[in-house]
Write a structure and sequence with these properties.
InterPro entries: Enkurin_dom (IPR027012), Enkurin_domain-protein (IPR052102). By secondary structure, this protein is mainly alpha-helical. Helices cover about 40% and strands about 5% of the residues. Among the domains are: about 60 residues; about 70 residues. The protein is built from five helices and four strands; from the N terminus they run ααββαβααβ.
């Protein structure tokens, strides 16, 4: 067979040639040579001030005017800081002495209040009071426990056994006895000789039904309170 040649080979070749980097050539790159007329002149690199803007027409400086009668100059009053500091000290409250604790004979001391030895927290108004967030959390936990107990009781009530009333018990007993009479009548009409398999099966089935009905009738007559589970 002939060798497979892709129909896109020419397109791929043109794309590769088009996207080829310009600097991937042999030898140094061909750049324009600077002109000899553009040489470095004297003081060309020194910073220059911006040119002054010419006054446009209609934008002339206003002449100096005399202040009006309502003008009040700002009078700066010199303060006597020495006198002011003396008055503040005289009128101010005296500083309370700070409590120190000395633990060595060389006189090393440290402040007593931040050390934890000074009983400042027990003197607070809210000392020993349960915080609000703890009380709120305890109330939420108690409310959740009560809701859970209520849901459990509701679920138990739903699953609780139902008590059969006396009227329902009498009706069920009458229905069972009536059913027993019908099956007993069908059992009495069976032939005496059971020589076939079908007759034997029919007789055994009627006997089992009679036994079950007799057991249910005896249980209902024996027990006055009958409970029915909700399954």
């Amino acid at each position: 067979p002939l060798r497979y040649i892709s129909k896109y080979s020419e397109l791929v070749r043109r794309e590769a040639e088009k996207n080829k980097s310009q600097w991937k050539t042999m030898g140094p790159a061909k750049v324009a040579v600077p002109s000899p007329n553009h040489f470095l002149q004297k003081h060309s690199k020194e910073p220059k001030l911006a040119p002054k803007k010419k006054e446009q027409e209609g934008e002339k400086l206003l002449p100096l005017s005399v202040p009006g009668r309502t003008y009040h100059p700002v009078i700066r009053i010199k303060k006597n800081f020495i006198y002011k500091n003396a008055v503040d000290v005289i009128r101010g409250k005296p500083k309370m002495p700070r409590h120190f604790c000395v633990d060595t004979r060389q006189g090393d001391k440290y402040l007593l209040e931040p050390s934890g030895l000074f009983p400042k927290y027990i003197r607070k108004k809210n000392y020993g009071v349960i915080p609000k967030y703890v009380t709120q959390r305890n109330e939420e936990m108690k409310r959740a426990e009560e809701e859970y107990q209520a849901s459990v009781l509701e679920e138990l009530k739903k699953k609780a056994m139902k008590t059969l009333s006396e009227e329902e018990r009498t009706n069920v007993l009458k229905a069972l006895k009536k059913n027993w009479e019908e099956i007993n009548r069908a059992f009495q009409t069976l032939p005496i000789i059971t020589d076939t398999r079908y007759k034997k099966m029919q007789k055994e089935e009627l006997e089992l039904k009679l036994q079950q009905l007799e057991h249910d009738i005896a249980a209902i007559e024996k027990h006055k309170n009958i409970y029915i589970a909700n399954v």
